[in-house]
Each structure stands twice: as C-alpha cells, then as structure tokens.
Amino acid sequence: MSFTLKNIISIKDFSKKDINEILKSAESLEAVARSKEKSDSLTGKILGMMFYEPSTRTRLSFETAMKRLNGGVIGFAETGASSVTKGENLADTARMVAEYADALVIRHDLEGAARYVSDMVDVPVINAGDGAGQHPTQTLLDLFTMQRIMGKIKGLKVALIGDLKYGRTVHSLSYALGMYGVKMSFVSPDELKMPPGIVHDLNQNNVVAQETSDINEVLDEVDVLYVTRIQKERFPDPEEYSRIKGAYRIDYDLIKGKDLIVMHPLPKMDEIAHEVDHTPYGKYFEQAFYGVPVRMAILESLIKSF
Amino acid sequence: MSFTLKNIISIKDFSKKDINEILKSAESLEAVARSKEKSDSLTGKILGMMFYEPSTRTRLSFETAMKRLNGGVIGFAETGASSVTKGENLADTARMVAEYADALVIRHDLEGAARYVSDMVDVPVINAGDGAGQHPTQTLLDLFTMQRIMGKIKGLKVALIGDLKYGRTVHSLSYALGMYGVKMSFVSPDELKMPPGIVHDLNQNNVVAQETSDINEVLDEVDVLYVTRIQKERFPDPEEYSRIKGAYRIDYDLIKGKDLIVMHPLPKMDEIAHEVDHTPYGKYFEQAFYGVPVRMAILESLIKSF
Amino acid sequence: MSFTLKNIISIKDFSKKDINEILKSAESLEAVARSKEKSDSLTGKILGMMFYEPSTRTRLSFETAMKRLNGGVIGFAETGASSVTKGENLADTARMVAEYADALVIRHDLEGAARYVSDMVDVPVINAGDGAGQHPTQTLLDLFTMQRIMGKIKGLKVALIGDLKYGRTVHSLSYALGMYGVKMSFVSPDELKMPPGIVHDLNQNNVVAQETSDINEVLDEVDVLYVTRIQKERFPDPEEYSRIKGAYRIDYDLIKGKDLIVMHPLPKMDEIAHEVDHTPYGKYFEQAFYGVPVRMAILESLIKSF
User: Fold this and answer.
1) Does the structure show a pLDDT above 70 at B285?
2) Which residue, A53, B295, C111, C188, shows the most beta carbons closer than 10 Å to its own?
3) Residues from chain B contacting residue A70 (CB–CB below 8 Å)
C-alpha cells in the first residue's frame, strides 16, 4: 500500500488517493474480517486503546480488527480503572502507553486531544472521536459501506438526515462525499441545520448540497438515507422535540417501494422503526461490520510488520 | 464431534447424546486446559462477551477456554463502559457485537434474554446465565466434574443442598441428573424447597427425588454433596436466617469418615467451613477448573474452524 | 536461566545472583519488547491479573509483556466487575483464577496479600504492589533502567528524593541498591525521612546513606536523581505542604549543566517540571518502557513453557 499518513486524526488530512488506498486495502481484508481466511500480519504487535469516553462499537471493532490480524490489545475502556484517576495528565498517560504499544487509538471528550497526543508520542495515533471534532475511521467505513453495497461512491445521491448541527459524523462525511462528487441533500429541522461554516467550506470546493427540512422532498431521488439521532437535549420544549423527532423518523411505510438503503452510525434509538431492521433497506449492521476491514486496513498501514 | 446444537441456551435443549458428546470432547481437551498441550484450533476466531451482570468465574473461564485454543475475546464485563449506557436496546447491541465475533456469550439479569438474542443474530449464542433462568454450561461442568472425579455419572447418589427454590444452578442440574438415572436427594429448609413445577417435571420423566430438611438423613448414603448458598434476603427474620444457615453448613466434623465429595458452584460464603477447602472432600476449585475444558468443547463445537 | 524463585513477592527474597539473572534475561528480550523481533515463548499460556487497586502502568506493562511473548491475559482491573462484589474472600478468588491461569499477578491494598495468596495456590504469584509493602518488579525495572542507561549499577551515586517515609518504591529500591554497593543519598523533608528501621537494616548490611533535607547538597555529585511524589495528605497544614513541595521540585534550572539523569516511578504530578520531559535528563518514560523486558524475563522464568 502506498498510503503514507503517519497518524489518522482528521478526514481533512486525507487526499482522495489516500482514501482510495484504504478502501482498496479494506476490500482485500474482508475475508479475514469475516473470519473466512486467517492472517498473522500483526503477530506480536500491540494496539494501545485509550478510551476516555465509553464507546462499545468503535472499541470492539478496533479490537476485532487487531485480533483477526493476530495482534494484541491493551488499554482502558473508561477512566475509572486507570491511573487517570490519580490525576495524571493526558500527555503523560499517552507517552506511557506509547512505551508499551505499536500504535494508539484515542477517544476523548475534548476536541483536539488526538492531534495533541500525536505530537507527544513517536508511535502512530488514531483518532476514535474527539468531542465535537473528528472521527475519521467512521467516515472511512461509511464510504466503504457505500462502495461495497452500491458498487460505487461517485455519482451516488446521499441524503444526510437529522441533527446536522451537532453531529460529528455528518460533518466529516459531507466533506469526504464532496471529494467524490456525491450529490448531497441536507435534511434537518431548521434548529439543527448544517453549520454555515461547513456549507461554506463545501462550496469553496465546488460542492453544493440541497438543504431542506422536508424528508419527502428527497425520498424519490436518493440512493442512501444517512440517518442520525436528534437528541432531546437540543430542545428546551419537550413537545417541540416530540414533533420534530416524529417528522424525521424512518419507518417502513415511508421508504417502501423506494430504491434506496438506510445507513446509521449507531447506536440508534427510535429514529428508525424496528421493522426496518428486518428489511433489505436497513444496512446499519452491515455498515458496523465494514468498520472491521476498514480498521484492519488502517492498522496494517500504520503498524510496521516484521 | 457429531454435536449439532447451534446455540447453548438451556440444558433442556440437550439430548443425553448431546451432553455425552460435550463431555467426551471436554475430556480430550483437558490437557490443553491444563496447559500441558498447545492448540490453535480457534486461531483468528473471536468470542464476543456480553456481560450485563458481573461474573468473574464464568467470564474468566470462557476467556481462558478461548485463549488456550488461540482465539481472541472482545466484549464488556459490565455495562458501565459500553454503549448500553447510551440507551441502546439489547437486540441492537447483540447484532452489533455479532458483526465482530464468531460466537456470543451473554449473561443478563432477565430470563429469556439469551434465547431472544439467539433469534436476533446469525452467530451461535451461549447463555451464561439469564436471571432466574438457565446457566447450561454450569450444568455441563457439574456433570463433567462428577464424571472425572467419580468416574461416572449414572448410578451416583447426589444430594442438592441449600436454597433449592431460587437456585438457578440446582434446577438445571436436577433435570440433567435425572437424564442419567442419578438418585437425587433435595435437602433444604421448608421455605426453600425445590419448586413443585420442577419436581412435577422430574416425576413426568420417572425421576423421583427424596425430599428432606435434615442433612443427616443423606450423609451416609450420598456420593456427592452439591451445596448452594442460602441468601439472607430470603428471610424477613435475621434470627430465623441464622438458625437455618447454621443447619445447612458443611464443616469437617459433619463429613469426616464419609465416602463423599463436596461440590459448590462458587462463589461460596460461609456455607462451607474453610477447613474443608484443604481436605480431599472439597472439590469445588477442581470443579471450577473443569469449566475450562467443558467451555473449550462448546466453543469448538459452535465455532467453525478454518 | 538458572533463576529459581517460584514467586516474586519481595525484593528481599532475591539474591544478587537472582537479580542479575533477571536483568540479563531482560536485556536479551529487549528487541522483542521493542517489537523488533517476534517471540512465541508463551503461546497458549495465560496470565491471571487480580488488580484490587487500579494501576494503569503496572497492569498494561504486564499485559504487553505477556502478549509480546504470544501469551494471553485474563482477570480484572478493578473490583467493580468481579465477583469480589459478591463478598468472595481473597483466597477463594485467587484459587479460582489459579485454576484458569499459569501465573497470577496481584495488586492489593493490604500489605502481605501477595504472600498470603502465594501460600493458597499452586501457580506462581507475582506481587504488583501490596499496600505499604513491596512492589518488586518496580525495583527490578529501576535497576534495569540504571544498567541500560548508565551502563552499570555498581559504583553509581543515586539520590532518592521526596517522600521517603511512605514511598513503597524507595524502600525496596534502597535495599536493592545496597546490594550493588551504590552510594545513596536520602533527600527529604524531616517529616518524610526514610524510616529508621530501613536505615538500620541497611546499616546492618554495611550500607550507609547520606541523609539531608537540602537537594542542593547532592546535585553536583549524583548520577541519578530518583524522584517521588510528596502527597498533600501527609501535611495537616496546606501552606507547609506548598512550601515543602516547592523545595523538592525538579526543574530545568536546577539540573542544567549537571551530569545526571532523572528517574520517577510515575505517575508524576508537578514534582518534575514539564520542561524536563523534553530534555535528555528526563528518563522516566524510557524507565516505564524497561518494565516490559523486565516483566517478560520474570514471566518467562516463572511460567514453564511447552
């Protein structure tokens, strides 16, 4: 692989060629991720997990990725059982784990934490979510899911739905989709529109997205509905919250007969009706699976093998 | 192995032939469990552990079983550090972990949770205890312990002692022992007798157990004392609790000179005197060990190797 | 290796020959610890970790040591998710984990816990810190650090600085350094002097250490400043604490131009200025790394390979 990034901090650090390299490598690792082939490419290697915030999905898929490649994992899943409770600062903890591991994965509640850590240690650092900031491996697995299920990314029509204001996932994803010439729609209540700064950035790169608050405007034309959760905390008025939540809920009646798939970064609450899980529309668990080969590709690219 | 169950949910799903297959396979894996031989039968395979209730013994013996076979383990040991705290439902969490793993082990406080999960996912599911329900691998290791230490199961005389009303372990075990024509005694205070439904079920299968509240009635004739804990919460009156607890406590004076062994699913509190630990009577730690080859046998039977 | 200790409980159990064996073996394992070479010396072996107190550094370096040698790890990192919460006693928990593992590592808040456990189980036991007691693998890695960085231990001049009264680390270390004929200085506030019992023990072995409360007295002559934290809880008067803390703080101005290194068992708070981290003086992260080859050497010596 000719991929050359040392750290995985933000999707903005990636060229389209970098992304393509990861997706290509992920595809070649899919049989290992599905446990249909064995690999020992990371035998004797150690991944250090520093999760200052809990995250089952991201943590477990990194662990599976590492272990399917025959590597080992150390670290902490939350900060209770770590020396963090003894008041050690982030830099010292990271430098310590870096002495024991060949790469670090960090999730932290503060934006910029992963970049800061990458400046402090010699081993590669992977950002697994830093507060309102970036979560680049999520974006890569979203792209990989589209490519594997739809056969391509370029030329797709993708609607991002729900909380586009605070949703870290959709910010990174819109940026990456723009690189591929995807036609995007941003579907959200007025209170939760995509931030003007991001829209401006996209426009600078000649990416124009349709913005609407009515999901029905996009249903007939999109290939992918990318749904995110609308959080109660965003609304002072509970009735307003209930009304809006209902207007962006995906159920079978809404999508039946349409030619589209439904994606979601998970965990989902009730923004997608359970009945959708068991239809060919619901692709979010398959999407979760695709996190494994994508993270395998990243780990293989960052950790020098014997 | 000709064992054909896809999931391990309840001992009632097992035929006697199924149980014999597991016990036979466990015996052949004992040298690996004792770390006297190596195995790589599950290289590259991942076991997903979903422990909604803490359980050191069951969790660690499954982990050792998987790792001695060169497989990997992911999951959560309690629900604090998982996305469960974000309100994700059980089905979604299970479907997610199933995307990363080749089999799931689940412990949950609600009866029926494991069966429900097995309907939701494509990978095999092992019930590691669901509330007042089943804990089939405990029963299998109890049987294996008797076979290995006593040389047989059929024809043994086994007394189940203590809390027979609420004890999940003794319910499953009595059912399985009935299949082997074991002569059983149920020894408990009146308040904690074996539930009539279970006694009725056993009778339907031509299994008759002696019931008594006096432990002295069985001591001279049994081969195995299977002791369980009597929990304080079962008694509104603390003095009544103390009196009853004392009457079912096993100490050296009670059993010395008898030809029997003492088993216990652990953890034990003071229902067995510490002095018994260091005598040939106390077999509960050896019993804990036998959980490893039994769980190895189950994992090998459920997870398709390369 | 001709090392013959069965358990690693206290540095006082070691002969100088024992220590030299471990250091020599650690040196040969350094390439594996740095992930420059592979090893499968502990394939199929399991290390059982019983951490009744959290400890990121010690726990993770043991895990890395075991995994770099291709072994597996089970256990608990704190007592919340274990059956300890169900009231099981230490001996029973240890005997249970010993049924699943080839060696135990225990950290406990009670002095003597590791020795007690070693009497209860058949597998080797490693003390990873027992309250105010011993932490022998820390001492061994401290010695290894000096040998690797300074090229020798014998003949060095080492100042132990800070809380010498309650600091478990410095008690064990002073004993071991005495065995090597190291010239020691004990630098502490009067309230936190090395306990007379330890000084007496050292004197019995013809080891004499200079005692002072003024760090400036030693700076020109020592090779190693071994710094420990002064804890606020030791001082009833916050102003007294602030004054003393300041007097023992190591910053760049204090040491620049001197021919010495700074060590620390970590985690450090503000007893060493951050600026020192990025100078050649600060060797504490390298010191943390040396815990890996030292623990590898211990694990290889205790766990019988196939």
Assistant:
1) yes
2) B295
3) 43-44
